[in-house]
Amino acid sequence: MNFKIDVQAGLAANPKTLPSKYFYDTAGDALFVQIMEMPEYYLTDAEMEIFTEQTTEIIEALDLSTDTFFELIELGAGDGSKTKKLLMKLTEAQYSFSYIPVDISHNALTRLCEALETEIPSLKVESRQGDYFEILKTLKNTHHKKVLLFLGSSIGNMLDNVAADFIYKLGENLQPGDKLLLGVDLIKGEEIVLPAYNDATGITSAFNLNLLTRINRELNANFDLSKFKHKPAYTKAEGVAKSYLESTTSQDVYIGAIGKTYHFYEGETIHTEISRKYSDAIIEKIISDTDFTVTTMLQDSRNYFGDFILHRNG
Question: What is the pTM of this model?
Fold first, then answer.
């Protein structure tokens, strides 16, 4: 079981870590929806503004034509709230395309498809559940123009070298002339970024701590959540928001599925997530060894968020 293996490896490391991908169980999904609705969490509103106010500019930057069929593939589609703005515009203008939302969550895809059937009944939807690259491999040889969407600054959960490899692999599954729309959070001051990861009502804290609840439930552990606290960190100079779980006391935690006790000293942290912030220069560096070139970058009115249009070279 990957969860058990990853938890075992992460808690054996120094410093301790846990993979952020395991935030998203049923409770975690619900908490993240609440996070995206928080007033402090500017990312959703900023990218939504781009997709609402600059929909025509997006279509033009993607070099789409009503005469050519294309596949619009969204990685990590979630509820598709931002993408719906683009889908409606494309449908109204009678572009010929199919929308292929990809997500690891079956429930998320089911809810999205049901919503689209009601909101845009004429839209052709072909949902796919599973690993991004496995699904892209199955679509590689359809011989249709492809547009990939990777929104919400999801790329920011990766270290830069991992992000570079990720984008390179995306390119391997595309043809020359295909496009990638990459949504990223732009570098800005601590006074804006930190509250987005440490809201006043404690939703982000609950989201982070829920990872321990999941370990308790699925791996028969005895984490006492009252003895851990959410701890965010960010500086503009580094440009990386980080989330930790900090032990508030010296304690031992037993994980039954692993058959091992882990000691935590007071103040010791478990690193659970990074959220990279970007500039033009950082994006150019990350894609420097890939098959992509930046052709356009659209920003919201506050310059908080950027949607980069990347062209797959020949």
Answer: 0.90
